[in-house]
């Protein structure tokens, strides 16, 4: 006797093949993701999650800037161009748009750097550029020398 198959048996069998095929595809895709694409460098890289984002420039009020200037060994840099006065205790003058090529910047990328300009715009640009270079302890005076003088503090003139 020859076994006969009913249409229902045939549908059940083809349904099982479809399910098995789908399981095989999912398993192959999972393996592909686990092993990576062919030709990729599969080296495991450990990342410090605190530095995964773009480096952050610290923004300081006039009082915070003054405290940082007075209590740290930070390099205080006036990045405003052209010269428009300076805050007492300034260590260097570097144009904001060329600061990243300045050879007198600290080699230690964790050294404290305090930046300011007249309004805060140039020091923000310079600070962001230094942060992108890997400097991790960069701050700038929000509002610049304008905020400094509005808070009752004085500037030195040439």
Can you walk through the features of this model?
It is a single chain. With 158 residues, this protein is of the alpha/beta class. Helix content is 37%, strand content 11%. It contains 4 helices and 5 strands. It has a 5-stranded parallel sheet with strand order 1-5-4-2-3. The protein is rod-shaped and about 105 Å long. The termini are far apart.
Key phrases:
158 residues, 5 strands
In spatial order, strands of the major sheet run 1-5-4-2-3
The tally of helices reads 4
Determine the mean pLDDT. 84
Sequence stretches where pLDDT stays below 50 over 5 or more residues: 42-51
**Helical amount among residues, as a percent range?**
25-40%
| N→C terminal distance | 113 Å
Gyration radius, rounded? 31 Å
Q: What about the largest sheet?
A: 5 strands, parallel
Number of strands: 5
Approximate shape:
rod-shaped
Could you tell me the strand content as a percent range? 5-15%
Strand-pairing-aware structural class: alpha/beta
Series of H and E elements: HEHEEEHEH
Topology:
Layout: H1 7-35, E1 58-60, H2 62-71, E2 75-78, E3 92-93, E4 113-116, H3 121-132, E5 138-141, H4 144-150
Parallel strand pairs: 1-5, 2-3, 2-4, 4-5
Short description:
The protein is of the alpha/beta class.
């Amino acid at each position: 006797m020859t076994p006969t198959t009913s249409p229902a048996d045939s549908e059940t069998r083809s349904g099982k093949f479809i399910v098995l095929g789908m399981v095989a595809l999912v398993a192959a895709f999972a393996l592909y993701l686990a092993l990576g694409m062919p030709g990729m460098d599969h080296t495991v890289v450990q990342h410090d999650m605190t530095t995964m984002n773009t480096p952050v420039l610290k923004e300081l009020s006039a009082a915070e800037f003054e405290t940082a200037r007075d209590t740290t060994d930070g390099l205080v840099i006036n990045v405003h161009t052209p010269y428009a006065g300076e805050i007492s205790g300034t260590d260097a003058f570097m144009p904001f748009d060329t600061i990243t090529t300045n050879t007198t910047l600290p080699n230690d990328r964790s050294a404290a750097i305090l930046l300011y300009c007249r309004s805060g715009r140039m020091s923000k640009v310079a600070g962001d550029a230094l942060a992108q270079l890997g400097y991790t302890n960069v701050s700038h005076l929000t509002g610049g020398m304008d905020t400094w003088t509005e808070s009752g503090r004085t500037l030195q003139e040439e």
